[in-house]
Write a structure and sequence with these properties.
This protein is mainly alpha-helical. The protein has one domain. It is built from 17 helices and 2 strands. Strands 1-2 form a two-stranded antiparallel sheet. A hairpin with a 5-residue loop joins strand 1 and strand 2. The chain is globular, with a radius of gyration of 22 Å. The N and C termini lie far apart (48 Å).
Amino acid sequence: MAARVDKDWLKQKLAKVGVDGAVFFAVVARFWQLLSGPVTLVLLSRYFSPEERGYFYTFASVLALQTFFELSLHVVLINVASHEWAGLRLEADGSINGDTSNLSRLASLLRAAARWYGVASVLFVVGVGTGGAYFLNDRALPPADWLPQWIGLTLLTSLLLAVLPLTSLLEGCDQLTIVNRYRLRQAVTGSVFVWTLIVLRAGLWVSVVAAGVRLFWDLYLVAVRYRGFFRSLWAAPREQTFDWWGQVWPLQWRLAVGGIFGWLSMYLITPLIFHYHGSVAAGRMGMTWTVLTSLQAAAFAWVETRRPRFGQMIARREFIALDHLFYRVSAMSVGLLTAGSLTFCGVVALLPSIEIRLVQLLADALLPAQPTLLLALAVSLLQIARCANIYVRAHQREPFLVPGIISSLLIGGLVFVFGRQYGVTGAAAGYLAVITVFQVPVWLWIWQRFRAERDARS
């Protein structure tokens, strides 16, 4: 009984700072990444050559080109499914019950998405697999040291892409607590495998095994844990088909175009440094960027995990409650990210002064303090715009298309010009300039105008 009371007390305390089950597991998973990240960084610094580190992080940036093939459909699936789930519920046996119209449309959405991603995964293997191999062939390492790993990693990533609509549908159907619990398991087991293989000097095969671990847990989640959920959808009557072109495509094509251009703002910087300044500099850039984006993802969990709830509130027209929840979780997200990123900058500044071999290896593997601070400020400011983006997209609207294209082109252009000439410091300065001067002010203006127009119609 005392344990039960303590558990309930803890839940109440966590709820006061915006932490429910979904947020708890998401934050713990990100926290694990933050704790395990330094271990991984030290091991990579100790057992990987500088050239291998460059390939390791450039692999990830090139694989992010999957957005050119899946066209951001997973974001639409989460938002659209959340509206349909408002009339449905999950039974104790794992099956779905509720309004048959909602169930029929949700099943139709799943079938269409599965077809879309099946084609996208095949195109991904052909396009990114061959194109990436050509780009990575800069002779820093012989092909025998990276090409087989690249092929295996591309194949596994294509399978992860094929499973993505299923996990996205679960997120939209308010199953984030369970999904994030499995992502926590994914993170922990992935770290253990990665650490073991790094110490065993498996080289770039570490990337392949890490992708295999992610695929295992995704398949277990959809094929075992939610077997009854998907069985209900596949067996649902086809009385009502989902209006793809009327309800999905208008939002998807905007997100797709924005996502394609968004690759310039999120992933161009490491391949650019790889191409113009070599794999060693790209490794330092990739390692630092990984830490900052991990912090960003951990803080964003406060907002991102509320996306299904946002959709349900909008469907019920509970706009006052929606705004109250949004303000609270957004403030928490931005504040945590700012504190975390600035703390990381302080650590980076102190590392060179610590006369310990492993610490010196880590310092050499990360960027210097100046470009790190520029990137940290950019990531923290960008979080404000990302929160505004989530809010508007939960209404199944996408007014950020043209501004997003402009922002991505500006970031890509400045990162290219300054990064090619001045290296990582120039690239980071160009990135921060666009975020500060253009993206954050414009995104906030769009968000405020959208709310005013919505409230005027209500």
